[in-house]
Fold:
Amino acid sequence: MSNPYSPDPSESRYRHGDDPVPPLVGHNPYTDPPTWNTQPPARPVAPYTAAPQRVPGVGWTLVITFFFGIFGLIPAVMHSNRAARLGASRAPYWWTFAVVVVISYVVGYIWIYGNLRLQY
Structure:
């Protein structure tokens, strides 16, 4: 039994003694070594290591809380969560928030009621 994929010499196109596969002329990309990249292989690269992350400061919590009051909770929550992910304490952000809220309310109380007291 013959191979069904091999060319049959009795077919009309091979009748005149033509070779079914023409000979390759020049460079054969399947059997010849590549000529387009003759550089030596690159050295192995060191494994990637991420840069150490810094714990966020309390400055934004202080400024936002002082000027916008209760909205200082937003940076306090964001920075304390990030500090916890990095393995640091959450306490500095909450202490900053609490101290600034107390100071701003005390200063506001004195400013408002001190002025009222001076007027009457």
Observations:
- The chain has a mean pLDDT of 80.
- The CA atoms of residues 51 and 86 lie 13 Å apart.
- Residues 59-119 form one domain.
- Helices lie at 59-68, 73-85, 91-119.
